[in-house]
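Apologies for my clumsy wording, but are you able to produce some protein sequence, whichever is easiest, and the tokens describing how it folds?
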Amino acid sequence: MTQRNRLRGKRGGTRNRLRLQAHRPPLPSILLANIQSLDNKLDELRARIRYQRDTRDCNIICLTETWLTPTLLDHAIQPVEFFTVHRMDRMAESGTSRGGGVCLMTNNNWCRDVVCLSKSCSPNLELLTIKCWPFYLPQEFTSVILSAVYIHPQADTDAALAELHEAISSYQANHREAALIVAGDFNSANLRKAMPELRQHIAFPTRGDRTLDHCYSPFRDGYAAKTQPPFGRSDHDSILLLPRYKQRLKRAALLEREVSRWSDPAEAALQDTLETADWNMFQHSSVEDTIPKRKIKEFPNQKPWMNKGIPDALKSCTAAYNTGLATRDMGLYRAATYSVRRAMREAKQRYGEKLESQPQRRDIRGLWQGLRTVMDYKATLMPMIGHLILSTHSRSVGQRWSEWRASSTWVSTSRRT
């Protein structure tokens, strides 16, 4: 194809879009692998990071069955300097001291602020959970919570799912606006039996003809899974999880509407108009003709209490910061930061007063919407009900229904006779 006839544009696809912003994705890219001994596959992991771009740009590397012991330090298994190691080795509480173990490696180019939320090791479940505040994150999320899971093939899957359900429910209750991701080797367990609201993003076999490695999140089409070669002689394929999640700002359309611009001259002109007009005929028309209109934009991820004073305060804060860098005097910048906090506090107070005044205006629908916003109400989590309890409850309900039907039939026949 000649230069004249070459098509314009750029290559599409999830992988190519991710490469353009490798460390600024809406959700972290993940390399999931059951590595079966990290110690003797560390050189291969370093080679993949060195020569494979997708592995090098991965935000999180999730490894199961690391087979590590506390005698091996973290810096000894660190593949490169820009990956930070978070691990949980198998403990004595699991019943055995060999095998198992999970590890999470975070890319420092994506996130440096990472804390460990929990570590647990039992005969049925090995769980490591971290919380990340990356450099870039969509506005609808406050952080990213990632859990690495390993369930032994001979483990009690019902007990393991019950433990995992309890842990994940506590994360969702304490961090309601965090992006939750659960990945690891589940073997025969299926987390959707305990938490059907989660989505499973790996739909192809990872060991033979079975899908043993899973990745769950609450987002539909959140990830695209790509199979990768296994590490060494491991019998599990590696999985590269590429984020396909679209931010709320890009999913919903921009809303434009007209609002009235009330000012002292406009109110005076309206008052003169109402004094000379027939109130019954021209009440609404006088307001529409006198008060000027303007179009405003409402973004789908905008908080309801935000007003024009907050972006103005942020602009002043940025200007004061640039001035402080030039003059080496950050006094104006500190005062501007106080102004930003004060503007946010006043906006929230004003929005709260608006919600409190809704009962007087008899706006019941707006009142309930405001209460849901203030209380940060979300749908309640579905509790995990055991199969035995559920079946017993179903039998008791069926028995009561049969008794009621029999009694109602007897009453109806006795009345006819």
